[in-house]
Amino acid sequence: MEPGRGKRNGALHVTKDLLWEPATPGPLPMLPPLVDPWEPGLTAQDLLFRGGYRYRRQPRVVLDVTEQISRFLWDHGDVAFAPLGKLMLENFKLEGAGSRTKKTTVVSVKKLLQDLGGHQPWGCPWAYLSNRQRRFSILGGPILGTSVASHLAELLHEELVLRWEQLLLDEACTGGALAWVPGKTPQFGQLVYPAGGALDRLHFQEVVLAPGDNPQFLGKPGRIQLQGPVRQVVTGTVQGETLLAVRSDYHCAVWKFGKQWQPALLQAMQVEKGATGISLSPHLPGELAICSRSGALCLWSPENGLQQVYKDPETLVFRDSSSWRWADFTAHPRVLTVGDRTGVKMIDTQGPPGCGLLLFRVGAEASCQKGERVLLTQYLRHSSPECLPPTLHLVCTQFSLYLVDERLPLVPLLKWNHGLPSPILLAQLLPPPRPSRVQPLLLGGQAGQLQLLHLAGEGVSAPRLAGPPQSLPSRTDSLPAFPLLEPKIQWRLQERLKAPTIGLATVVPPLSSTPGLVVFQLSVAGDVFYQQLRPQADSSDTRPDCHAPTASWTPQDTAGCSQWLKALLKVPTAPPMWTAPTFNHHHLLGSVELQREEGAVQQPGVLREAMAQGRLLLQRDLGSLPMAEPPPAPEPGPADELSERLGEAWAGQGAAWWERRQQARTSGPKRQPRRPKRRTQLSSTFSFSGHVDPSDGTSPPHSPEGPPAGALPRSPMTSPSQELTPDTWAQGIPSERRQTLRDYMAKLPLQRDIPGHAGTPPSSQASSTRATRSRQHTPILSGSQPPRKKPRMGF
Q1: Structural domain total, the chain
Q2: Do residues 133 and 255 both lie within one domain?
Q3: Comparison of pLDDT for 409 and 591, the residue scoring more
Q4: Starting from the edge strand earliest in sequence, which strands make up the sheet with 230-238, in order?
Q5: Chosen domain end from 166, 185, 212
Q6: Mean pLDDT, to the nearest integer, of 621-642?
Q7: Which of 136, 166, 196 corresponds to the end of one domain?
Q8: Are 316 and 342 in contact (CB under 8 A)?
């Protein structure tokens, strides 16, 4: 019934102890994060067209196919272009193939890449390239034309539509992948949930529920590796026998808990068309109902095997493109329900094939809106006889919630517009907190929103809402409990907390003075959170949608969140997306020939051998490493006088340091005053005496202001051939300067024909010497010297 009519009929009669007060403002992490990296994946902003159409009256969602095609070609070039390369392989010759065919249908890839790269070997760009390009266009036209691009665009658009539908509604985890298995005593139990980057590991975590304390996990969880991602986990206890059923995409399995409370596999089966729903029978132990995308409904038990009871590939009420199906039991052991997006139908397994009756249909009978579809249908098997009749079924759509009685099909007994922003994929009927005529119903949205309803329907009266719905805190409300972080780490934490919810489980703590409730949540990232709820003592708020009373964080809660965050930061991030490599046709096309000639296949062979033997790849298998040069030693820098003075002053020895400095200055060697540089002629750097050996490096340089001619030192008698020979002058002089030196020595006014002992130089020699010395002190005019050769390098 509608909320307005229910209020007139007394449906919203508010009783005490209806509002649940959370112990914390938000859920707390239960287990440390997994070591597997997790990526948030695509968002709506990644797929939508950022621009907008002008003059459009009604806004419409537009997928940006052009940008996605460009990203696909860039990020997945091997997928986009590899099929084209295989189709064109027979018409192209790779480098190193050794083929010398002259067929006109075969094109050399190396020359073609040179042509496309602008290679012009013959000056004219079209002299010899037109023929090869024409052959390439003829061969590649049918393959590289618009047909391939259009086909790729169609496939990509189909993939975008599927991704967009998954963003709006991810039906894979309908029903929940988190379950609570009670233990030997009420204080102990096990949480069963998937883990791992692909959700392909089934974990069994033992948990202890202490009265008045937070739940604690015991030890490490047990693990079972599966062949596919876990989508649904269902547990049930019938006649003292506890079973666990798990659904994957194409497999289903059932376990039984024995006396040691360890799971033992009973049977596993493969579903070729893909399983969409699994349910445990509340009447017979070991019996399950399974439905697939082909529209088949089967009864399955380890003793009797698989039995198909219904199959219809078409939808129940009207045509819908979705292949989703759902199966559940009813109050009768031999009557099942099968549902799709258009309605729910009851099937009699003992009747003729196709015998059944519609329980719910999307249409005028239920006052459904346009575009409304069924998201979840569930039999309320845990209803208390004092609160609700045992024949009620829950039907959830993206807009409303319906309660339908199988004794009165097609007409819902209760309709409530839940108003959640995300679709409802999780629902669980909880036991009453205390003996009363009100039973809570917990709803979970895909984005993590939780809503709590209170149902009542004692006697023969129709079920109704006994109070306003209550919104419980979500995981994003726990963000203030974490410490302040850097923007990048803060964004990572927010994305982790906003991960979609894929599992929901509730437990009533035993032996507690006040009734309470523990709600466990499982995110798609593999994180398990919990929150404790207790009934509020006095509830007089009758607003249509009231939130839970606010609580405060305790130091213990913030410490636990900080510890969980530290473990999260140690988890490696997801690997980056594959980037397109850069190709070089010289290395790419000639790789076959290079490997054949140089034997470069040795290392891959060693790698394959090591992988086949299952051993580590050692360094000796790869060869010796190149010798690395040691880093250069740091050069000692000049003494820092200021740092030394400040250090001594800081230590209180500033005066002593100043005295040592002054003593060092006074006692040190005095520096000779520097003489000013004088520009001299080139001839002044050489000696005018043939008795002085210029190659002797120990002789002091001659001063421009030398002694007079008579005071020149004398040397013993030498032969004219030993005075100024070219060999004597050439000692110690570079080869490129020897010719310049010879030319210069030829211009000097030296007398090579001096006979006998050279005691006193003749008057001509003395006059020439004086003339030469006078030219050293007076500037020489350009016309006073004979023409000289052009000076070479260095002079």
Answers
A1: 2
A2: no
A3: 409
A4: 230-238, 241-248, 251-257, 263-270
A5: 166
A6: 62
A7: 166
A8: yes
How far is CA 109 from each of CA 79, 88, 136, 540, 647, rounded to the nearest angstrom?
20, 11, 10, 82, 73
* Structural tokens at position 206: 């033992």
743, with CB counted inside 10 A (0-12, 13-18, 19+), is middle
Using CA atoms of 322, 328, 331, 336 in order, give the dihedral in degrees to the nearest 10. Answer: 70
> Residue 195's domain spans which residues?
16-38+169-536+554-564
First to last CA, the chain: 113
How far apart are the C-alpha atoms of 235 and 247, rounded to whole Å?
12
pLDDT confidence of residue 144:
63
Given a contact cutoff of 8 angstroms between Cβ atoms, the answer to whether 525 and 38 are in contact is yes
Query: The pTM is what?
Result: 0.65
For residue 209, give the CATH number of its domain: 2.130.10.10
Distance CA 456, CA 462 (A): 8
Reported as a single tens digit per residue, the pLDDT across 464-476 is: 888 888 899 999 9
Rounded CA separation 68/740 (Å): 76
Residues 73 and 21 in one domain: no
Tokens of 138: 């003829």
DSSP annotation of 76 reads T
Residue 695 CA to residue 715 CA, distance in Å, equals: 16
**What gap in Å lies between CA 163 and CA 71, rounded to an integer?**
15
Element (H, E) at 644: helix 641-650
pLDDT of residue 116: 61
Amino acid type, 728: T
What residues pair up with 252 in beta bridges, in sequence order?
A: 247, 269
Is residue 592 situated within a structural domain? Answer: no
Alpha-carbon torsion angle 267, 268, 274, 275, nearest 10 = 40
Tokens standing for residue 304 = 């009797």
What is the total residue count of the chain? 795
